[in-house]
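Changelog-adjacent note: as of this version, every example in the card shows the full chain rather than a window. The one below runs 405 residues end to end.
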Amino acid sequence: MAKRSNGEGSIYRHNNRWVAAITLPPNLGGKKKYHYGKIRKECVQWLENMRDSLKKGSYSENSDITLIEWLTTWLNDYCINIRPSTRMNYDTYINRHIGSSDIANIPLCQINTSVLQNFFNNLSQNGRIDGKGGLSAKTVRNLYNMLHKALKQAVGNQMITNNPAEYVVLPKVTKPSIKSLNMQEQQMLLNSCKGERWEIAVQISLWTGLRIGELLALRQSDFKVIDGIYYLDITKSLQRVKDYSSESNSTILNECDTKTENSVRQIPLLPCVSDILAKHFTKQKSTADASFGLYSNDPYIVCNEIGNRIDPSTYRKWFKGIIEKSGLSGKITPHTLRHTFASTALKCGMDLKSISDILGHYSTDFTARTYIHTDLNGKYEAMTAMYKIFEENERTNNNEYKLLS
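Full-length structure tokens:
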């Protein structure tokens, strides 16, 4: 029997296991690579994939590391500048969605666009961990973005020659309609939380459009004044994230920098809002005086009984009760108040750049696409104003014509 040449490979049985072996060409070191499997079919598939990648030139040394192994290494060694909440999301994508799938143990050099396309199609149809259907298009895209970054790093490390995620087709993300409260609804909400412990949170949200994490990270010391202008200094965000210092799956409250560099900002406050905050601080001082020294020296603005921070989930639960009490209909969350602020500010004539800066967005285009909403009445008023300008111009032109004639 003729001896097999390099790159052809062989399959044989050894110690009750099947073994596939192939010798790499000289330009890749000439080493012999092995794969062990329980059944012969597994080794046949590995050998075929190896031959194919060598023929296409897509194999590189170390690319036989499995996808799940590389993603774990990438998360631990290369994701050093991501936020704790982002790390928690990545951890879920890698260990729960990818880790439980068929592609987890496929060698990196064998991952191609077709394999990934089938994976993402399945996520859209059956991706929920509880088995109740597929993941949303937005979640699928978020997972894709993470995987694309990890594979791009593998290309940079010369583990693979190209990024197989580049040409994957994803389901279209349809932006849901976000509810905005009109003036009457805002008043109903304010009335329903009068006298409540966290009434101040709703008042601040309606006048600033803060994210819930930014709101709950505010302390008294973040209320400042320059040249007679009172403002909130936004630098932190409060979130519940996984505790990576513990071996358990426990979570902790984490106060970190804001979402992006644009999120670090100063939000000016109208005198009426400054007065509301001043009265709130007076109440906090009275509580502190009666606390026998237990109250925080620099209390959170939205706080518990002794001036410490509260869990975002606790605030959401309280807010849900306030909405039920108010009688407002539809899905209304704390984030609805952020959208309401942006929509109200636009209707009242604030320019888009100022709104974008106050919200902490990276561009006015993102602000317009994400938050700005005008109702039918607002659109009608805008068109009425446009007609008035047209009518005025027509009147002016007619007068000029009479003067010339």
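Structural remarks: The first strand starts at residue 10 and ends at 14.
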